[in-house]
Amino acid sequence: QKEVEQDPGPLSVPEGAIVSLNCTYSNSAFQYFMWYRQYSRKGPELLMYTYSSGNKEDGRFTAQVDKSSKYISLFIRDSQPSDSATYLCAPSEGSSASKIIFGSGTRLSIRP
Amino acid sequence: ETGVTQTPRHLVMGMTNKKSLKCEQHLGHNAMYWYKQSAKKPLELMFVYNFKEQTENNSVPSRFSPECPNSSHLFLHLHTLQPEDSALYLCASSPKAEGYGYTFGSGTRLTVV
Question: What is the pLDDT of residue A28?
Answer without folding.
Answer: 92
